[in-house]
Amino acid sequence: MQAALSSAEGANVSALCDGLFACAEAFSFDGRKAAAVAIYDFLRDLPQAPEEVRAAALRGAVLLRGNEGLVLLAEALRSDDDVAADAAARTALELKDPGVVPLVAAELHTLPPHRQVLFAGVLGKLGDTGALPALLELAKEGEPPVRLATVTAAAEVGGTDTVAALVELTRDPDSTVAETAIECLAGLRGAEADEAVVSLLAAPDQILRVKMVELVARRRILQAKPAVAGLMRDPDDALRLAAVKGYGQLATSADLPVLLDTIVTSSQPSDIAALGKAIVAACRNGGEQKACVPQIAETLERATDAARPTLVKVLNRVGGP
Fold this sequence. Notes:
This protein is mostly helical. It is 73% helix and 0% strand. The protein has 20 helices and no strands. 41% of the residues are buried.
């Protein structure tokens, strides 16, 4: 079949390649690894082979060689052949060898941007913290698409260094990078990520603080309720409104006094409307909502004219049938 391929054309090339793949699989099954590797090497170097054949042959050649296949993997990710590089990326995810991550991480900064994006994704999926230095370096200094890919990949890996880097990147001048860092921070698990989000509630950037309030609610960081409650009186309209909405998502009936004390002094219609919704939600999120009626009724008596109509509606919703 190998000899016949030298003069084959069209569909015959694919058919002969399929036959050789079958032979390689049979040799591998029988323990004749060297014979199988020889076929894969022949196919990956065959000039007239279709792209899918060269990709599959590279995969077979790397996987059968095991640790020795790392050399081929490195050649493929460095090569000018995108087909080989794509095959190397897929194969890296299959090759159960501890040397894969150090190899790819070491090569990452030398690759062209489109390939950095590809192999950043590989490192993210492999989830080894050994890749973090390379990923975080490019997250700070790479081309825009590379920065986004490496931020996402680092978040997939996780770890202390990732949390710290994401916190820093939330302030990045590139708004797309900053938004990606925030979204990645939202998806990280663990108390360390919670603490990082809470710490950013005191950031000097008001826009960032608004986003962190929203993250507190999304992550349900209950220990942040006192900090969010304080922001419900902030002079910045957007931050104050975000805090009211966020607190309402976290509150239970035990938090009703905080919400009621806030609404009686509020004058902004948007704040009052959001506080009304938050009060209803808190009453429903703490057991028997009608038990909240006396507190709301008492608050109604001392409320401002601006807040009173909303409190009447709240009272009807909470105390109604």
